[in-house]
């Protein structure tokens, strides 16, 4: 699945950003989308934050407004080069999320946006285990990603979006009980996941 638009969107940041802006209309715009996973969290200048699968720094640039200790991690050197240019206040690590070269119990907050839907189920579980490892006890994992729409009117737009830009793994995420998986790994949910855009987006806060 997916179309050439997916390849192009990863090659050209302007296209990725335009698509992200378009998709974010469903929650009131990109600025609001970038705040969704952060609502209700306490982040100060000393909070140690990991932006997991940071891409070109789209969410990292919001996180550095709160904390002076933000690390972005991604597997794509091209994206990391852009992130370094776009958000030089953060540090960056080129690595696989499922095998992070980072100390255990290191971060107060691991944030990830619009990335877990790119992972096959086995890899997703490994990544969540790694997130658990690198978080300090009591640390929070905040994620925002796709969810199976609860409002039937949102099925056509999300189906079109996934067909144009995503692969099978995004459809698999719609079938995945992420809160259940996190709890199996050892996380406790801070509160019930919140749903947005007719249920097509979920925000989860889970504590180690
Ligand atoms: C859709 S982008 C999301 C970027 C950004 N977080 C955002 O909100 O726009 C997904 C990112 O995940 C990265 N990625 C995919 N698989 C990964 C893995 N196994 N380990 C680390 N990064 C990965 C990709 O390189 C890409 O930058």
Task: Walk me through this protein's architecture.
By secondary structure, the chain is α/β, with parallel strands linked by helices. It has a single domain (4-207), classed as 3-Layer(aba) Sandwich (Rossmann fold). The chain is 39% helix and 22% strand. The chain is built from nine helices and eight strands. Strands 1, 2, 3, 4, 5, 6, 7 and 8 form an eight-stranded mixed β-sheet that branches. A hairpin with a 4-residue loop joins strand 7 (194-196) and strand 8 (201-207). The radius of gyration is 16 Å and the shape is globular. 36% of the residues are buried. The protein binds S-adenosylmethionine. S-adenosylmethionine (SAM) binds at residues 20, 53-55, 58-59, 74-76, 79, 96-98, 113-115, 118.
Unique bound compounds: S-adenosylmethionine
Output the structural class: alpha/beta
Q: State the shape.
A: globular
Report the uncertain regions.
none
SSE pattern: HHHEHEHEEHEHHHEEE
The proportion of strand residues reads: 15-25%
Please summarize the sheet with the most strands.
Answer: 8 strands, mixed
Q: Would you identify the CATH H-level superfamily?
A: Vaccinia Virus protein VP39
Q: Count of DSSP helices?
A: 9
CATH architecture: 3-Layer(aba) Sandwich
Q: Count the E strands.
A: 8
Q: Helical content, roughly?
A: 25-40%
Number of domains: 1
Q: Might you state the CATH topology name?
A: Rossmann fold
């Amino acid at each position: 699945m997916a179309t050439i638009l997916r390849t192009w969107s990863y090659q050209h940041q302007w296209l990725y950003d335009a698509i992200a802006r378009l998709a974010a209309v469903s929650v009131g715009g990109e600025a609001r989308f970038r705040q969704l996973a952060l609502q209700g969290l306490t982040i100060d200048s000393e909070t140690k934050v990991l932006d997991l699968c940071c891409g070109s720094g789209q969410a990292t640039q919001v996180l550095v407004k709160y904390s002076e200790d933000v690390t972005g991690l991604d597997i794509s050197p091209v994206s990391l080069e852009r992130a370094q240019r776009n958000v030089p206040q953060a540090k960056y690590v080129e690595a696989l999320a499922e095998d992070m070269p980072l100390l255990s119990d290191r971060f107060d907050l691991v944030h990830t946006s619009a990335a877990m839907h790119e992972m096959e189920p086995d890899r997703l579980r490994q990544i969540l285990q790694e997130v658990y490892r690198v978080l300090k006890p009591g640390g929070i994992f905040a994620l925002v990603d796709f969810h199976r729409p609860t409002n039937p009117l949102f099925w056509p737009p999300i189906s079109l979006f996934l067909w144009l830009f995503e692969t099978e793994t995004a459809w698999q995420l719609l079938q995945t009980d992420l809160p259940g998986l996190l709890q199996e790994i050892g996380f406790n949910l801070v509160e019930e996941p919140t749903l947005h855009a007719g249920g097509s987006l979920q925000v989860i806060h889970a504590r180690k």
